[in-house]
Amino acid sequence: AQADVGVIGMAVMGSNLARNMAHKGFRVALYNRTAARTDQVMADHGDEGVFLPSHELDDFVASLERPRRVVMMVKAGAGTDAVIGEVVPLLEPGDILVDGGNSFFKDTRRREAALRETGIHYVGTGISGGEVGALEGPSIMPGGSKESYKAIGPVLEKISAHVDGEPCCAWMGTDGAGHFVKMVHNGIEYADMQFIGEAHALLRAAGLSNAEASEVFAGWNTGDLDSYLIEITSRVLATKDPRGTGQDLVDVIADAAGMKGTGTWTVQTALEMGVGVSTIGEAVFARAVSSAPALRAAGQAALQGPDRQIAVEDRQGFIDDVRSALWCAKVVAYSQGLDEIRTAAQEYGWEVDMAKVASIWRDGCIIRARLLQRIRDEYAAHDLTTLLEAPSVRAELGESQGAWRRVIARATEAGVPVPGFASALGYYDQVRAPRLNAALTQGLRDLFGAHTYKRVDDEGSWHTLWSGDGSEISAD
Ligand code: NBP
């Protein structure tokens, strides 16, 4: 019998995805550039299902039922282009080539456009959940043609995580839509982790030990903030140094955060489209500052300020305030990220269903959270310009904003850096303000560069003769 689906790339993600497929009853063809990896997967897991391993790519392609369904799980960038170059000549019109790696959506658009003429369906697919997710059920965000989803959708849905019987996998839109949604997922993940870090720093500044903070996070995980990232935060904070120094592990980890680039892509893309994703930007910048030792050494030596201690009389009250601030900031990050997706959908002509996006992030992926159920329900019930206006969201933001403001005020007075919390609140106050300082900006631009301005009480564009008689002239 031939294989139902094939996987190229037997590193951790590809092999786990192939095993997941086999566990779900699919016959899975396997191929990896370095054949020893394929042999290793067969030796370790060959008895878990029906696998058809090949050492040669043409044998792999020949082992697949038509139309062929091939999933690539290789390094994004040059690795992906190399595999496309080798496998495409062996495929036929109607076959489907899925890129399950973390490709940049513009690369996916380019590759999809190039293959469209050959009749081969190129399906850029975001997959989140890390290695455990790949094995046990990730969140899957496929793009590509609607037609291709009919053939590949059932396989991807079956191996994805499920919530109440619904798969955490849905067609996101044509060409690069799937990778775009995955990119923003990662951007939100950056913001989420930055906020969690700020919450932890605040709890520590108020005198809690890491063990106590771990318990606070565990408690939060039973309520509104219930999410994978909060759960593992509790776990990390409760962990002692494996070297037996007796210290908490978090205290011996160097405070320089790394990144692989998806957060930066999210912000760059938002900048190009003119969408405000300040919280994600702050998270990316916070990692950059953390990883700038010379800057930090200079700052530590030169700059004065308070000692980052927060004296709290009502400890539980303060903890509750931090919880509220974390929830509010998190909602703003989701709102900004979803706004970026909505804007891209308009720009690129994708039919992205925002309720579906929230729905498939409910489980399997790194940002899975109880909040996503509410976001899904709100988008399903209302045509929202911003998540912030959703009835249940705006009501809770309204109630919790006092705590959010108090936390930022306390942090600022004490010198605890909270760029994420503060930028989220800045955005909230910006979008609700009837007048913004942009009026003065326009005035300044008109004075120094004759950039003109519009008026609140008239049509058209205007310019004041700043160095002339001070009168106003039409600039149309
Ligand atoms: P890697 O990203 O480490 O890639 C290793 C695989 O790429 C190996 O199979 C390797 O073959 C293959 N490869 C490379 Br590198 N260059 C190649 C070329 N020129 N031709 C053919 N094959 C080539 O693997 P991974 O960590 O399993 O991730 C796979 C994809 O999934 C990536 O795009 C990654 O960004 C994405 N992803 C990863 C995670 C995660 O948690 N790790 C989560 C979500 C998405 P070889 O064995 O012959 O060297």
What do you see in this structure?
The structure is a single chain. The protein is α/β, with parallel strands linked by helices. The protein folds into 3 domains: 5-175, Rossmann fold (3-Layer(aba) Sandwich); 182-432, N-(1-d-carboxylethyl)-l-norvaline Dehydrogenase, domain 2; 438-474, Single alpha-helices involved in coiled-coils or other helix-helix interfaces (Up-down Bundle). Helices cover 55% and strands 9% of the residues. β4 (69-72), α4 and β5 (96-99) form a beta-alpha-beta unit. α8 (177-205) runs antiparallel to α15, α12 (262-273) crosses α13 and α13 runs antiparallel to α19. It is globular and about 80 Å long. The chain starts with a strand and ends with a strand. The chain binds nicotinamide 8-bromo-adenine dinucleotide phosphate. Residues 9-14, 32-34, 37, 73-76, 79, 82-83, 101-102, 127, 130-131 line the site of nicotinamide 8-bromo-adenine dinucleotide phosphate.
